[in-house]
Design goal:
By secondary structure, this protein is an alpha/beta fold. Helix content is 41%, strand content 15%. It binds adenosine-5'-diphosphate (ADP) and magnesium ion.
Length: 268
């Protein structure tokens, strides 16, 4: 009964957003998507970053893409033509590469420019989840993701400097909710690259609570060499080293995401 809200025909669209680079957006998007798929969920990952890191992390070559997020956003191709299998059960991707940077420029004066992704995703059926990996900026691509999304998860590195820009990010999310996408919810903040040896971490957690009270996920993603190695093999951490701490952490995180979103669905 609890799952009813999720398995309806409308997918739950989840954006991983933070304008800071290198905080674990892509790593979290890829591993969360993989974990959800391995739980029998139908998942579509949309790479919204011209760097195409989510694309390559799942082993999809980003050179010579015929159809990608770029074609979807500028209206050259429908989403259906741009979706491809990642070779895993239940996990498809709309890949991206550097062409996507051009969409920013081309869409500047376009109609419904913030709604391009939302409009495209409204056509998609058969997925329980759509995971959006955002670029490291609060520009038009992230705006498209926030307008399309139902929930946003903010990955945050456990370092003091990671807190810079948090107020701006919160402000952007609030503005999108107030003016564009009233359904948008902050699902939570996930602390990444956690290093238990530094006592800075606790300080960071307390500071984060000032902006996102009660919304930090219990699961801390540890700093782990294995996690950083997996993408170069085109694998998720669960595929690359299933017994590693990193794999266990992302599994626990995915459980928490499913419970939390489920709880919101029930509370609604
Ligand atoms: P973003 O998408 O926010 O720019 P990434 O997910 O690409 O961040 O992560 C930035 C870098 O840190 C990548 O090289 C990635 O492999 C590495 N990384 C991410 N998470 C971890 C982790 N938990 N432990 C170690 N390295 C990590
Ligand atoms: Mg990234």
């Amino acid at each position: 009964m609890a799952m009813a809200a999720i398995s309806s025909s409308e997918p739950y669209i989840l954006a991983l957003a933070n304008q800071k680079g290198g905080v674990g957006k892509t790593t979290t998007a890829v591993n969360l998507a993989g974990e959800l798929a391995s739980r029998g969920q139908q998942v579509l990952l949309v790479d919204c970053d011209p760097q195409g890191n989510a694309t390559t992390s799942l082993g999809v070559a980003k050179r010579d893409l015929r159809f990608s997020t770029y074609e979807v956003l500028v209206g050259i191709a429908g989403l259906d033509r741009s979706i491809r299998s990642t070779g895993r059960d239940g996990l498809d991707i709309v890949p991206a590469n550097e062409h996507l940077a051009g969409a920013m420029v081309e869409l500047v004066s376009a109609e419904r420019r913030e709604w391009r992704l939302a409009d495209a995703l409204s056509q998609v059926a058969g997925y329980d989840w759509v995971v959006l990996d955002c670029p490291p900026s609060l520009g038009l691509l992230t705006l498209n993701a926030l307008c399309a999304a139902r929930g946003v998860i903010v990955p945050l590195q456990c370092e003091y400097l990671a807190l810079e820009g948090l107020a701006q990010l919160k402000g952007t999310i609030d503005r999108v909710r107030d003016h564009l996408n009233p359904r948008l919810t902050i699902v939570g903040v996930v602390m990444t690259m956690f290093d238990g040896r530094t006592n800075l971490a606790q300080q960071v957690v307390e500071e984060v609570r000032r902006y996102f009270p009660q919304r930090i996920f219990n699961t801390l993603i540890p700093r782990s060499v294995r996690i950083s190695e997996a993408p170069s093999y085109g694998r998720t951490i669960a595929e690359y080293d299933p017994s590693s701490r990193g794999a266990q952490a992302y599994a626990a995180f995915a459980d928490e995401v499913m419970r939390r979103i489920d709880r919101q669905a029930v509370a609604r």
